[in-house]
């Protein structure tokens, strides 16, 4: 059972998401919160698998709530998915850096919401191809160096796997591209996350862009 915490200051959004998720046999909404401070308390109480958190809220906003969840060892199993009205706005990259596993726009289709919760529960990053392209565009305009990122500690195959993660490929797709098993692909990715101190695949994507490992070309 995938346990979900909803954190949004709009009651209508919380009620709508709960109604959709509660229809699924493998998903349970365990709690709701109207701001980040209450969300943090409920996350510690219920230890959900997924926390769907609005990016802009009173008291403690979504970015700060994400940062605190990521920094709390007791909440290491909580995957934060940011909710936004705007797609890739100025705050989303900050949220990914803070430890978010990805983000969703609030007008998402019902079937996509359910699919996204399951994807996040598996530990995969929620980064749509259109968002990935815009992230790449930002880093092409402002290239950074690999110095200090830890990329030098990766093997060549781990670097290849990280680059493919950054391009939005799933484990199965990465395995096919690298001509290896899915289990081996997952091993490369997990080792890369450990070496780069990345909390999840979303942070791995950000590190790939920041280091220059991935460019638009």
Automatic annotation (TrEMBL):
<dbReference type="GO" id="GO:0000160">
    <property type="term" value="P:phosphorelay signal transduction system"/>
</dbReference>
<feature type="domain" description="HTH luxR-type">
    <location>
        <begin position="147"/>
        <end position="212"/>
    </location>
</feature>
<dbReference type="InterPro" id="IPR001789">
    <property type="entry name" value="Sig_transdc_resp-reg_receiver"/>
</dbReference>
<feature type="modified residue" description="4-aspartylphosphate">
    <location>
        <position position="54"/>
    </location>
</feature>
<protein>
    <submittedName>
        <fullName>DNA-binding NarL/FixJ family response regulator</fullName>
    </submittedName>
</protein>
<keyword id="KW-0805">Transcription regulation</keyword>
<feature type="domain" description="Response regulatory">
    <location>
        <begin position="3"/>
        <end position="121"/>
    </location>
</feature>
<dbReference type="InterPro" id="IPR058245">
    <property type="entry name" value="NreC/VraR/RcsB-like_REC"/>
</dbReference>
<dbReference type="Pfam" id="PF00072">
    <property type="entry name" value="Response_reg"/>
</dbReference>
<dbReference type="InterPro" id="IPR000792">
    <property type="entry name" value="Tscrpt_reg_LuxR_C"/>
</dbReference>
<dbReference type="InterPro" id="IPR011006">
    <property type="entry name" value="CheY-like_superfamily"/>
</dbReference>
<keyword id="KW-0597">Phosphoprotein</keyword>
<dbReference type="GO" id="GO:0006355">
    <property type="term" value="P:regulation of DNA-templated transcription"/>
</dbReference>
<dbReference type="InterPro" id="IPR039420">
    <property type="entry name" value="WalR-like"/>
</dbReference>
<keyword id="KW-0238">DNA-binding</keyword>
<keyword id="KW-0804">Transcription</keyword>
<dbReference type="Pfam" id="PF00196">
    <property type="entry name" value="GerE"/>
</dbReference>
<dbReference type="InterPro" id="IPR016032">
    <property type="entry name" value="Sig_transdc_resp-reg_C-effctor"/>
</dbReference>
<dbReference type="GO" id="GO:0003677">
    <property type="term" value="F:DNA binding"/>
</dbReference>
